[in-house]
Amino acid sequence: MSAPAPPPAPQFVAGLKRLVGACRSALISSHLPLDGDAVGSELGLQRVLRALHPGKRIEVLNEGPVPEVFRFLPGADEARVLAKDDRPDADLLITVDCGNLDRFGALLERLPRSVPIVNIDHHGSNPGYGSLHWIDAGAPAVGEMILRLARALGAPLDAGAALPLYVALVTDTGRFSYSNTDPRCHEAAAELLRTGIDPALVSRHVFRSKPFPLLRLEAEVALRVRFERGGTLAWSKVLLEDYAKHGLDEHEAQDLVDIPRSVRGVEVAALFREVEGGKAKVSLRSETDFDVARFAVAKGGGGHPRAAGFTAKGRVEDVERQVIAELARAVEGA
Ligand SMILES: [Mn+2]
Predict the structure, then answer these.
(1) 226 Cβ neighbours under 8 A, 6+ residues apart
(2) According to the 3-state scheme, what is the secondary structure of 12-23?
(3) Beta partners for 271?
(4) Does residue 1 register a pLDDT over 70?
(5) How far is the CA of 61 from the centre of ligand 1 (A)?
(6) Pick from 55, 102, 200, 284: most CB atoms within 10 A?
(7) Predicted TM-score (pTM) above 0.70
C-alpha cells in the first residue's frame, strides 16, 4: 500500500507565504543543465505564485537558456538568462530541484547575502541550505511537490501551471518508467491531465523533436560503450570536440547515460562528459540496490540512490579509468 503524498509542513507553507508576501521581487532558479524537472518546476511555481500575487514581480532566471525542447511551455520565452555583470534586483530567491548550493556559482555572487533562499528539492543528498527548505526525497519530481504546494497554498491549478508540472513529472520518471514511478506519481499525473493538457503534445515536443545532429552524437556515444564486470558495469563518454563536430550545443545533449544504461544486463552505468577547465562530469545510474548517490556524495556530488553525479578534476580519460576502477570495487563490496 502506498499512502497519499503528504502536504508540505504547515511551517514551510506559512514561511513561504510570509516571504513571498513581503518580497518586492522574487527569482525562481535552478542550476545547469536545466532538465525537464528544473524548467517545469520553475514555470509551474511561477504560475502558481503569480496567481496568488498578481502584480508582484516573480521571475524565472537561470545561468543558461531554457533548452529548446522545453520552449513550447507557456512562460518559457519570458525566462531570463543571467547576463554578464547582471545584478538582479531581487529580494527573494527560490531554488527548485537543486541538491547543492555550490552549483549556483554566478547567481549567488550577484545577489546580496541578505536575500533569503527558499529551497524546494527532492534530492536526498540536499543538506537543507537556505532560510527555508522543503526536501522530500520520496517525491518522484519537484514538479509533483509544486503540485502539492499549490494545493496547500490554495492556488488554482490551470492548464498553464499543469503543463510544465506534467513535463517535470514525465521527464524525471523517464516517462513513468524509473523506480520513482509510484502510485502518487500517477495520482499527480491524473490530476494534472484533468486540467485538459495534452500528453501526446508533451511527448512530441520533449521526446520526438531531436535535432538530427544529436542522433549522430548518440550513435557515437553508443559506439564508445565499454563494459566491465561481465557486462554489468557499462560506460561511455562525450568529449568537448564532439559538440563542435556535430554542431550541437552542450545543453542539447542530455540523458546520454541512458545509452550504456539501456544495454541488457547492465546494472550500473556511467557517462563521462568532458567539460571546460580540465574537468569531467560523471553521471551514474543504478538498476539495483547499489546506491550511486553514496558514491557520488563521497566525490563531492549528489543525487538519488539510482541517479547521481559529480564533477572530477583531470583529463576525461584519467577520470574514466580511475572512477571505473573505484566503481567496480564499490559494486564488488556492496
Ligand atoms: Mn528532479
Answers:
(1) 234, 235, 236
(2) HHHHHHHHHHHC
(3) 236, 283
(4) no
(5) 17
(6) 284
(7) yes
Bond prior to 33 in cis (omega within 30° of 0): yes
- Tell me: the pLDDT tens digits for 74-129? 999 999 999 988 899 999 999 999 998 887 778 999 999 999 999 999 999 899 99
| Residue 288 CA to ligand 1 centre (angstroms) | 20
Residues counted in the chain: 334
- State in Å: Cα 272 to ligand 1 middle: 20
Q: Return the closest-CA partner of residue 79 out of 119, 42, 51.
A: 42
196 close to 287: Cβ distance less than 8 angstroms = no
Report helix, strand or coil for 313. strand
- Return residues with CB closer than 5 A to ligand 1 (ion): 37, 97, 172
Assigned C-alpha cell, 161: 501551471
37-55 pLDDT tens trace = 999 999 999 999 999 999 8
d(CA 168, CA 36): 5
CA 89 – CA 82 distance, rounded (Å): 12
Look up residue 287 and give its three cell numbers: 538498476
Do the Cβ atoms of 88 and 82 come closer than 8 Å? yes
